[in-house]
Design goal:
Elements: E1 2-6, E2 16-19, E3 29-39, H1 41-46, E4 59-60, E5 64-72, E6 84-88, E7 97-101, E8 105-107, H2 114-118, H3 121-134, E9 142-145, H4 151-162, E10 166-171, H5 174-182, E11 187-190, H6 194-201, E12 206-211, H7 221-227, E13 229-237, H8 250-256, E14 259-262, H9 265-271, H10 275-288, E15 296-301, H11 305-313, E16 320-324
Parallel strand pairs: 9-10, 9-12, 10-11, 12-13, 13-14, 15-16
Antiparallel strand pairs: 1-2, 1-4, 3-5, 3-7, 3-16, 5-6, 6-8
């Protein structure tokens, strides 16, 4: 089978399209004929050896995919051959066939296409974990989302809207603002001077800030995010795509009665094997209703995986970039 492999740590241009032996599922795994794979930020880091999880080389790249179950391990009872599924496996998704843990693989509603499903696992599950589990979001609250037009940002917007929140998306361009508004966000503000814009909209502040961006090299965006919080509000830390890890002066938390919460979805799943199943159950009605539908920025063929990852690196992407591995039935 064809697969995109990491054979050296020199960035997206060093990826190799290889013919390798198809895998077989272990007892607690499923074998999936991949239709589409989602391109995520960890793939960019993995091509340079910068991700916290290190795989022995060579390895097949790709964290998330959607396709059809081709075989199941002997211990798997909730999935069957022919099921349409999405999965998040950590590696192996940029290939014609992959194995995935059964507890990280979920059935799809009939209304969800395989292309849409491939863009869901990492971003949608992270967004749900951030807002519902860590942020304890309730209907009627307000949520500020940084990087709101990106893959994770658009998922955060959609989940927050589906849960009945008022959403403010922070974006870098008016074009991206239009994307965010089209997803149901009631407000979109530009990242330059976002604090003042948010204070004009909500003088008492917002209940949650969801931040997958961190600080740019030339600023302290995170401190401004803390200043946007209402009394008892929480800033959710999801990542640092801007490259700089913020430093928090905890006296700000004390004086303003606000908090900071880490959102480590992967670490949570590692200690709770049933997490994905419970999340998918919580999201199911929203999926069926069409409220959670990833924005697809571009779809490229498998052999252009390096180019797909470079698009992500450019930070011009609105929503998700996908790789199409085979035609959807």
């Amino acid at each position: 089978m064809k697969a995109i492999q990491v054979t050296e740590l020199e960035g997206p241009d060093s990826l190799t399209l290889a013919d390798i032996e198809a895998p077989a599922p272990a007892a607690h795994e499923v074998l999936i004929d991949v239709a589409y794979a989602g391109v995520t930020f960890p793939e960019l880091l993995q091509t340079r050896g910068l991700y916290q999880v290190k795989h022995p080389m060579p390895f097949t790249l790709g964290s998330e995919a959607a396709g059809v179950v081709a075989a199941v391990g002997e211990s798997v009872t909730h999935l069957a051959v022919g099921d349409r599924v999405a999965t998040i496996a950590g590696k192996g998704a940029f290939a014609e066939t992959m194995t995935a843990p059964a507890n990280a693989t979920v059935k799809l509603p009939d209304s969800v296409s395989l292309a849409s499903a491939a863009g869901m696992p990492m971003n949608l599950l992270t967004a749900d974990f951030a807002l519902r589990v860590r942020g304890r979001l309730e209907a009627g609250q307000t949520v500020l989302v940084h990087g709101a037009a990106g893959g994770l940002g658009t998922a955060l917007v959609q989940v927050a809207v589906a849960m009945g929140a008022t959403v403010v998306g922070v974006v870098s361009t008016e074009e991206k603002a239009e994307t965010v508004r089209s997803l149901g966000a009631q407000h979109a503000v530009l990242s330059d001077g976002f604090k003042d814009s948010v204070k004009e909209l909500f003088p008492d502040g917002v209940d949650l800030v969801a931040d997958p961006v961190g600080n740019p090299a030339d600023g302290d965006r995170f401190t401004d995010s803390l200043r946007c919080l209402a009394r008892f509000g929480t800033a959710l830390v999801l990542g640092f795509t801007a490259g700089q890890i913020p430093q928090v002066k905890v006296n700000r938390l004390l004086l303003n009665n606000v908090g900071v919460a880490g959102v480590g979805w992967g670490a949570a799943f590692a200690k709770d094997p049933g997490l994905i199943a419970s999340q998918w159950e919580a999201l199911w009605d929203h999926l069926v209703a069409g409220k959670l539908d990833p924005v697809i920025h571009a779809t490229l063929p498998l052999e252009e995986a390096g180019e797909a990852i470079k698009q992500l690196e450019s930070r011009a992407v609105r929503g998700k970039v996908l790789l199409q591995v085979r035609a959807e039935a």
